[in-house]
Amino acid sequence: MRKLVLLSLLSLFIAPIYSDAAPIAVNCPGTASTADREFTLTTDPAGATCIMAGANANQLNANVHDLLVIAGWTVIDKDPDPFPNDAWFNVTGLGAMSGSFTVDPAAWGTWGEIAIGFVIGGGQIGPKWAAFELPTGETSGLWSQSLTHGGGLSHANLYGRGTPVEITEAPEPATLLLLGSGLTFFARRKRAKR
């Protein structure tokens, strides 16, 4: 009986050990060896996915963005210009080489997938734009581009696709341990009364 009580008390203090994973930086596409511009998106804890990039800035213009629309994406916000859902998306570093982004969690309640497209102003070195799909539920991160010439960030678009998926969390191991030891205690107690 003492062991069972000790085990139950111990389970109250044992919490699952989660290591905070380092933020993950994802490049899209370009390499330093070819001197192409390299876009990078950093998210935490899961990495984003580079879904498209191109040399023509008009391909990611708020009115054109043909390639993403063909792939089923819908532009749902734009920064810095006002858009119907302007509160959903904010980007810092306009005109600069790097910055941050935030996405309102309400966007994830409307769309199953969310992507951000970044457009660099001026310059002839490609790619001039890149689009990244965010990990499910991600609401913030960092963006950057590798070259110091060819212009800073012109604007960024927020895209949505699909319907939201309800995410359910699994019970923590300590909770399961506590529940199991409690059930064991009552089962033994019931057996002892017979």
Features of the shown structure:
single chain; 194 residues; alpha+beta; 5-stranded antiparallel beta sheet; 4 helices; 10 strands
What profile does the largest beta sheet have?
Answer: 5 strands, antiparallel
Structural class: alpha+beta
Helix content: 10-25%
Give the radius of gyration: 24 Å
- Cross-sheet strand order for the largest sheet: 1-2-9-6-5
Contiguous helical run count: 4
Query: What proportion of the residues form beta strands (DSSP E)?
Result: 25-35%
N-C termini distance: 17 Å
Number of strands: 10
What are the low-pLDDT stretches, counting only 5+ consecutive residues below 50?
4-19
Question: What general outline do the C-alpha atoms trace?
Answer: elongated
How many discrete structural domains?
A: 1
Q: What is the residue-averaged pLDDT?
A: 75
Order of helices and strands: HEEEHEEEHEEEEH
Structural commentary:
- With 194 residues, this protein is α+β, with helices and mostly antiparallel strands.
- It has one domain.
- The protein has helices spanning 2-13, 66-70, 105-108, 173-193, and strands at 24-28, 39-43, 49-54, 74-79, 89-91, 98-103, 113-120, 129-133, 140-145, 153-161.
- The longest helix has 21 residues, at 173-193.
- The radius of gyration is 24 Å and the shape is elongated.
